Amino acid sequence: MSADLLQALAAVLPPDGLVTDPDVLEAHRHDQAGWAMAGTPRILVRPGSTAEVQAVLRVASAHRVPVVARGAGSGLSGGANAVDGCILLSLTRMNRILELDTQSLFAVVQPGVVNGSLKAAAAERGLWYAPDPASWEFSTLGGNLATNAGGLCCVKYGVTGDSVLGLEVVLADGSVVRTGGRTVKNVAGYDLTRLFIGSEGTLGIITEATLRLRPRPPRATTLVAAFPSLVAAGAAVLDIMKDTRPSLLELMDRATVRAVEKHRPMGLDADAAVLLMARSDAGGEQGVAECARMAAACEAAGSTFVIQSSDEAEGELLMGARRFAFSALEKEGTTLLDDVCVPIARLPELLAGVERIAEARRVLIGTFGHAGDGNMHPTLVFNREDPDEVARAQAAFDDILQVVLDLGGSITGEHGVGVLKRPFLERQLGSETTKLHHTLKAAMDPLGILNPGKLL
Ligand SMILES: Cc1cc2nc3c(=O)[nH]c(=O)nc-3n(C[C@H](O)[C@H](O)[C@H](O)COP(=O)(O)OP(=O)(O)OC[C@H]3O[C@@H](n4cnc5c(N)ncnc54)[C@H](O)[C@@H]3O)c2cc1C
């Protein structure tokens, strides 16, 4: 590393804010997308304040060095992967909840706060922070914001971006902007908050966020139903979504159910084409009515069994299979977890398309995900040591994205573009919209130092 750069960074950060130990750098090179390319960083910096982030970006601009922001590194698209010669900018030291307003229902947080810590702090005051990526116990709010993370409760409460009132962001040149505010409604100026949400560290570094809190919902009732065909399950999803507001509506296909049963037998119907899991958190009579309506929708669509429980522990047990889905598939071999989204009416076609691809490419693909959002995670399982299997898995990955685009869907619903999906972005956006992305990027980051080679 150039001595000049190290000296400049040392002048603006405390000694424990600079890390050059090769082992630590190695451990921070990658996020959880094992398949995505990662470069070699020059240094890891750990600022403790917005002012220190500003100082790092001024140094990076002066030295024309790329900066890759990083939260917990739990991303699944390679977004936080190092690029060669970069400064890795870890936000984990900025981990304070600055304010929790129980009357206006918002929290002001630093980006390194773990999602679960905000949930816990809100719960202590009888409130709830809704966004719930399955990584809630370890992913940071900064990472959640920069990927616009989804989760199980999105079907009723929206994605991370739907819980954001305002942001503080440090731009590439080290200047600070504030977007949005503390109000639920706010249409003053362009919606810059939304521009930064999901921008994967390519437009600015989020250093503070004002997030919406809600009253805690009543205890939920959980329902599980098995279907003999993809079409039947798809019909149930559409019927449910027509007039109920499930707080969760998840799906697992046969390949996933079989993997779960193999590694943690739960007595699930391994012959069913699809298992659906639904929840109502409406509570009281409305909750009972909502569950009855969802059960009726499943039966009308031809489900072979439906069970439900309003006991919280039993509900969690029923949901355990869904939560274990990815881990079960991981036990079958190397996995490449995809993340795609289609209009919900096209869900059966997506699932059928994935089945066709699995057969044609001779790759095991287990599909599970958020049926109520049309957001699925087809997970390719293969042997990394076998070049032929790797090539077939990669081809299957591409095929799935093409099916998704043909169905009018999106190449990513919640994990982001990162490195993995970058070659596919223009196919979805088209040339003019891609050009506008480049224009925005050039205006906000003229030196191109913020997370280059990601997203765009
Ligand atoms: C077991 C498991 C389950 C998961 N479940 C879900 C799920 O249900 N839903 C879902 O959406 N995702 C899920 N993920 C993916 C991942 O947890 C999310 O993308 C999460 O939001 C990433 O947070 P992080 O703190 O780990 O961010 P990182 O991985 O460190 O970074 C993610 C991206 O955000 C950028 N970034 C990070 N912090 C900032 C900042 N302060 N300012 C600007 N840019 C920043 C990085 O450069 C990178 O591009 C899961 C991952 C795992 C391992």
Automatic annotation (TrEMBL):
It holds the Pfam family FAD-oxidase_C. Coiled coil: none annotated. Keywords: FAD, Flavoprotein, Oxidoreductase. It comes from the Bacteria. The keyword Thylakoid does not apply. Residues 37-216 form the FAD-binding PCMH-type domain. The keyword Manganese does not apply. GO terms for molecular function: FAD binding; oxidoreductase activity. Its cofactor is FAD. Belongs to the FAD-binding oxidoreductase/transferase type 4 family. This is Glycolate dehydrogenase, subunit GlcD. It comes from Melittangium boletus DSM 14713.
